[in-house]
Amino acid sequence: MLAGVVALVAELYFLFLDPASTTDWVLAVVGSYRTRLSLAAFLFLAILAAIRMRPTRPDPEASYGSLLLRDSTLAATVVAFAVGTVLLLTTLLQATVLADDMRAYAREAAPKVVGYVNGVREEIQDRRREEGQSPEEVNDVPPPADVAQVEESFGPPAPRDLGRSMANFVLRAILLGTAGAVVGLLRGRRKGGPGGAPENG
User: Fold this and answer.
1) Residue 149's beta-bridge partner residues?
2) Could you report the per-residue pLDDT of 150-188, keeping only the tens digit for each?
């Protein structure tokens, strides 16, 4: 449930952020690192779910470690399924009913983000000039940001992007499921007693 809420907020950020009253650097961070931070949050929640999982259907023929491996993988995969479902729905909404809201946000936020990014770029160059660095080192910075490009990156996805979202759904499930399996394996090794039974205490 929490993972779905995080995914919802991360994808519908443009409904909560007002570019006119939000600091430039916050807009830049949201635009540049939102996806990475979201993935890190999903991975954390998947690992947390795997850590909290306790086998609920003991199998006398299976070791406790294998039950932990199974249930931890399942718990992390459930997180991935919840996240993927929300992201599929939000991508569909962004491409249709919320497209105008995204475009309005992009038009207002893009100039502020470009101004901040280019300002930081110039500060880095000025600092290097003051330090007496060579022209090559002074100019060794990313190219200036362009308002049109930033506005396009903030804009709504195309309906065809649903296919990419579905592919990401599968990849995310594999990633989080693998993380859950690793957690379950480590827990099984740590807690497994003789014969694979859980140790007391």
Assistant:
1) none
2) 999 999 998 788 888 888 889 999 999 999 999 988 888
